[in-house]
Specification:
The protein has 60 residues and is mostly helical. It has two helices and no strands. It has one domain. Keywords: Membrane, Transmembrane, Transmembrane helix.
């Protein structure tokens, strides 16, 4: 859990605050937001890869 609990990072601070205060809906919301953010970033990289390296065999 160390990447999520960095206190100087906004999402990590929210996650840590939710854990400390036993605010489980907040913890769940932060985890869902991180999952969505990760998916968006993944598909953005895939789109960039198709645009700039369409010739490469990337195995998708």
């Amino acid at each position: 859990m160390s990447p999520f609990t960095v206190e100087n990072h906004p999402r990590g601070a929210l996650f840590l605050t939710g854990q400390t205060n036993s605010n489980y809906p907040l913890v769940l919301a932060v985890l869902i937001a991180l999952a969505v953010l990760g998916s968006v970033r993944y598909y953005a990289v895939v789109a960039l890869e198709k645009t700039f390296a369409g010739w490469a065999d990337i195995g998708h």
